[in-house]
Design brief:
The protein has 613 residues and is an alpha+beta fold. The protein folds into 3 domains: 211 residues, no CATH class; 121 residues, 2-Layer Sandwich (Alpha-Beta Plaits), CATH 3.30.70; 125 residues, no CATH class. 28% of the residues lie in helices and 27% in strands. The protein has 18 helices and 27 strands. Strands 14-15-10-9-1-2-3-7-4-21 form a 10-stranded mixed sheet, with helices on both faces. Strands 5, 6, 17, 18, 19 and 20 form a 6-stranded antiparallel sheet that branches. Strands 23-24-26-25 form a 4-stranded antiparallel sheet, sandwiched between helices. Helix 6 packs across helix 7 and helix 11 packs across helix 12. The protein is globular and about 80 Å long.
Length: 613
C-alpha cells in the first residue's frame, strides 16, 4: 500500500502494550472505523540468551491473526518492534513465518513484509571497545570487558527511528514492518516522520506512552488511540470504562526511567521539563505539549546481551513452628554449612523467606517475626544434575535438620506437592548493557523485504462495537466501577501519630519498577496541588530518607527529586541484584514500593477525603 501524507493529523492505534498478550478484537475494529492510520506495537526484551520467545507461538498467532485480518480489510500499515521479545534475528524470522502461514491458511491477500535485523557482530563490539567507544549504559552497570563479549550468546543493538524511516522510504507499498530489537518509541516516531510530522519531541513522547497501550489510563486498560498534530498529541483509551488523567498519564511517562524529565534513547535525548498535560472536555483524553528532543552528536545506540551462568534447581515448602522461625537465619546458616561439607564442586545456594523478606530481600526494612514462612531454596551449579543433587541435600536438611529447643521431631518442613526438587534449566545474567558510540544509525540494521503470497478470499463480518451508542459514552456499569475505584483506599489499618498521614493514604500512585537491569526506580504522585506542596515542604522525601528506608548508601541513590509538572516525587537506586541474576527475587522490581506507603507525612489537619481525588 502507498500511504497518503496529506492529513493534518495522524491517528495511531496500539491494541495492547505487549503484542501476544491478547486484546479486545472489538476495540481493534472500533479504532479502524475511527480512522486509525497505523497499528504500532512492541514485543519487549526477554530471554535473549537462550533464544526463547516471551510467549508461545500460539500466543503470537492469535494476535497477529487479528492484525492481519484488519490489514486485509482496511489496508492499513502495521509496525512491530522487538519481535519475539528480544528482537533477535531468529525471532524476526519467526514473525514473518507465522504471518506467511496465516496469510495462506486464512486466505488473506498478498502482503509485503519488510524485516529489519538488529544483531551485531561481536568483532564490531570488540573493535569499538578497543577504541574506547563502548561505555556503561547506567551508573550502576560495570565496565565492559572483552571476556564479557566472548561469553555472550548474541548481542543486539537497540535501533532508533532511522532504520524504520529508511524501510518505509525504500518500500512505500509495505503492509507490515517487523523490527528486531527496538527502542520502544522508535516505530511511532519513525511513522510520524515518514508521514510529515517532524517534531521528534512530540513523536517520541507519544511513542513512550503508547508503547504500553492504555496503561496510562485509569483504571489501566489495553487499547489506546493517539492523535498527533503540529505541536501536540492526544491519547485516549478505547475501553469506555477507562479514562486518561493527568496523574495516570504522567505516571507512565516516568515508567522504567531513572529520571522523569530526561529520557535518553538512540540518537538523542527527550526533555520533558516544559511538557504540559491537559485533560480535554470529554474527561477521558489528555493533550500534551512542550516536549523537546535534542539530537546526539555523535550518534549512539544501546547494546544488550546475556550469557549462560549455569543451571538452576529449586524447592518449595513452608514452616509454621515459631521456635524454628524465631531462629531461622541461624538454622539456614547451619544448613548452608552442612550442604557445603557434602560437595567439592562449585555451587551457590540461596534461601528466600516468603513472609519475611523474600520479595524485597536486602531492601526489606521490616523484619518482624511472622507466624509462618514459605521457604524457597535456589541452587546454581555447573550442570543440571549437580544443581538437583545439591537441592536434594539442602531440602532434606531443611526437613530433618535439628535446631535448639526443637519440639517437632518428625519434620520441620511442609511440602505441598512433588516433584520436590524442580530442575529449572539454564540460569542467565546480563553481560552486555552498554552504549556504542560513534555509530551509523542505519548501517548495522539490515533491511529486507518480501511479498508473502495470498489468495485474497478472506471475508469477515466486522464485530459489533462494545460501546453504548455511537458516542462511545460510559455505560452505567463502567461508570459505577470508575466511581468505586476512586473511593478512599482502606488498606492501611494502623493510624500514624496525630497530624500525620501515611504516604499510601494520600498518594494517588506509588510505584517501583526496573529502570534497566541495574536500577530500581520509585515514585509517588498526587492529584492535588496543595497536597503535593505539603508533602514536598515536609522534607520527609529526600535522599537521606530513601537511603535509610531501603538500606542503601547515599551514593547508591542515583536520582532523587520532585517533578512539579506531574506532582511527583521520584528516586532511583542501584539494585542489590541485577534483574534476572541468580538470587534476584523481583525481576521487574514492581513489588518494592511497600516501604514508601508507610512513610509518615506531617500534613496537619488536612482533609484527605476532600482532596485525595
Amino acid at each position: 500500500m502507498t500511504i497518503s501524507r496529506n492529513k493534518d493529523d495522524l491517528k495511531i492505534f496500539t491494541p495492547i502494550g505487549m503484542l501476544d498478550y491478547g486484546f479486545n478484537e472489538d476495540l481493534l475494529w472500533k479504532a479502524l472505523e475511527e480512522g486509525a492510520d497505523a497499528f504500532i506495537a512492541d514485543s519487549g526484551p526477554q530471554k535473549l540468551t537462550l533464544g526463547h520467545t516471551t510467549v508461545t507461538r500460539e500466543g503470537y498467532e492469535h494476535d497477529l491473526d487479528l492484525l492481519l485480518a484488519a490489514c486485509h480489510v482496511h489496508r492499513f500499515p502495521i509496525l512491530v518492534g522487538s519481535a519475539g521479545g528480544d528482537g533477535a534475528n531468529g525471532h524476526v524470522g519467526l514473525f514473518v513465518e507465522i504471518m506467511r502461514d496465516l496469510i495462506l491458511k486464512k486466505g488473506y491477500r498478498a502482503m509485503k513484509i519488510v524485516s529489519i535485523y538488529s544483531e551485531v557482530d561481536k568483532s564490531l563490539v570488540k573493535s569499538k571497545l578497543d577504541c574506547g567507544q563502548v561505555v556503561p549504559c547506567s551508573k550502576a552497570a560495570p565496565l565492559l570487558k572483552s571476556s564479557n563479549i566472548d561469553d555472550t550468546t548474541r548481542i543486539v543493538a537497540q535501533m532508533g527511528l532511522e532504520p524504520y524511516v529508511k524501510a518505509m522510504e525504500k518500500n512505500p507499498d509495505f503492509d507490515i514492518i517487523v523490527g528486531g530489537r527496538t527502542y520502544d518509541p522508535s516505530p511511532y516516531a519513525a511513522f510520524c516522520i515518514y508521514r510529515g510530522f517532524p517534531d521528534l519531541g512530540i513523536a517520541y513522547h507519544m511513542g513512550k506512552i503508547m508503547k504500553c497501550g492504555a496503561l496510562c489510563a485509569f483504571p489501566k486498560s489495553q487499547s489506546a488511540m493517539a492523535t498527533l498534530r503540529k505541536g501536540s498529541f492526544d491519547i485516549v483509551p478505547l475501553d469506555p470504562a477507562a479514562r486518561c488523567r493527568v496523574t495516570s498519564f504522567a505516571a507512565h511517562t516516568l515508567y522504567e526511567k531513572t529520571q522523569p524529565d530526561i529520557l535518553v534513547g538512540p540518537g538523542g535525548t527527550l526533555y520533558l521539563e516544559h511538557a504540559t498535560h491537559k485533560v480535554l472536555e470529554d474527561n477521558r483524553t489528555v493533550r500534551v505539549r512542550g516536549d523537546k528532543f535534542v539530537a546526539a552528536d555523535p550518534y549512539t545506540v544501546k547494546l544488550e546481551g546475556a550469557r549462560v551462568l549455569g543451571y538452576r534447581t529449586t524447592f518449595f515448602g513452608a514452616i509454621r513452628d515459631h521456635i524454628s522461625i524465631s531462629q531461622l537465619d541461624q538454622v539456614l546458616s547451619n544448613i548452608q554449612a552442612y550442604v557445603r561439607s557434602r560437595f567439592s564442586h562449585e555451587f551457590y545456594l540461596r534461601f528466600h523467606q516468603y513472609g519475611k523478606n523474600a520479595v524485597m530481600g536486602e531492601l526489606e526494612p521490616n523484619l518482624n517475626v511472622p507466624k509462618e514462612i514459605c521457604l524457597c531454596g535456589e541452587v546454581l551449579a555447573p550442570t543440571q544434575t549437580q544443581a538437583t543433587h545439591v537441592s536434594n541435600i539442602a531440602r532434606l536438611a531443611c526437613i530433618h535438620g535439628p535446631y535448639p529447643y526443637q519440639l517437632a521431631t518428625t519434620g520441620n518442613f511442609a511440602m505441598p506437592f512433588p516433584p520436590y526438587d524442580i530442575p529449572m534449566g539454564e540460569v542467565c545474567e546480563i553481560s552486555v548493557y552498554h552504549i556504542l558510540e560513534k555509530v551509523d544509525p542505519v548501517k548495522h540494521f539490515p533491511i529486507h523485504h518480501r511479498l508473502l503470497p495470498g489468495t485474497g478470499t478472506f471475508v469477515t463480518e466486522l464485530a459489533k462495537l462494545a460501546v453504548d451508542g455511537k458516542s462511545g459514552s460510559l455505560s452505567s456499569k463502567a461508570a459505577e466501577m470508575m466511581t468505586r475505584s476512586l473511593e478512599k483506599r482502606p488498606f492501611l489499618k494502623l493510624n500514624p501519630l496525630e497530624g500525620y498521614r501515611y504516604l499510601g493514604d494520600i498518594a494517588s500512585v506509588i510505584r517501583t519498577k526496573n529502570a534497566g537491569p541495574y536500577e530500581l526506580t520509585m515514585y509517588a504522585m498526587f492529584d492535588n496541588d496543595d497536597l503535593f506542596e505539603r508533602v514536598k515542604k515536609s522534607g520527609v522525601l529526600c535522599l537521606e530518607s530513601i537511603s535509610e528506608l531501603y538500606g542503601v548508601s547515599q551514593e547508591e541513590v542515583l536520582a532523587c527529586l520532585f517533578w512539579d509538572q506531574a506532582r511527583c516525587f521520584k528516586a532511583t537506586i542501584k539494585r542489590p541484584f541485577v534483574s534476572g541474576q541468580f538470587g534476584d527475587i523481583d525481576m521487574h522490581g514492581s513489588q518494592q514500593h511497600t516501604p514508601l506507603m508507610y512513610i509518615k507525612v506531617p500534613i496537619g489537619r488536612y482533609c484527605i477525603e476532600a482532596n485525595i481525588r
